[in-house]
Amino acid sequence: MRDFHGNGDFKIGQNIDIQFPDDQFQAIRNTNLIRHYVQCDSRLSRLFLYLRMLFDALEIRNSKYGLLSSYHILLLTIHFLQSEQALFPWPVLPVLCKTHSNLVGAHIPIDDVVSTLDSAQGPVGAFLFVKDYRGSGTVDKRRLFFAIWTHFVVGFRHAHTF
């Protein structure tokens, strides 16, 4: 039996989620964007894993039940690392669609995006923009994690106190 979302429940207790790509191949483009961000700064992956474990411990990560997904957590982490207000004087990550639109964006032919993702060496030019971006490369992972914690968790609590 299938519901209107395309989810199928099998008699053995397993289920499957079927999704059809849109005509712009947004999921593939998002994968390309995330891959570039991960190559920008190695701390992104570690911070994402810390936050995912924290959200698991708080029991707020489970997109099947309307909670946050791993992708949501990853986007929150990237957004925070781009934030000038949270990370003074420089953000850790650039906004790639503004600074390096030749590497990411809807204007790049999907065949080029797929070729980039298939290449074993990573995106063409990925290491060039890492060298010319002057992000906050000296802040250690623990300090960044604490900054994320205070920005999202503590700030969220204070914003919703009545």
Automatic annotation (TrEMBL):
PANTHER family xrefs: POLY A POLYMERASE CID PAP -RELATED, POLYMERASE NUCLEOTIDYL TRANSFERASE DOMAIN-CONTAINING PROTEIN
Spans through the membrane: none
A GO term for molecular function: RNA uridylyltransferase activity
The protein's name in its UniProt record: PAP-associated domain-containing protein
GO biological process terms held by the UniProt record: RNA 3'-end processing
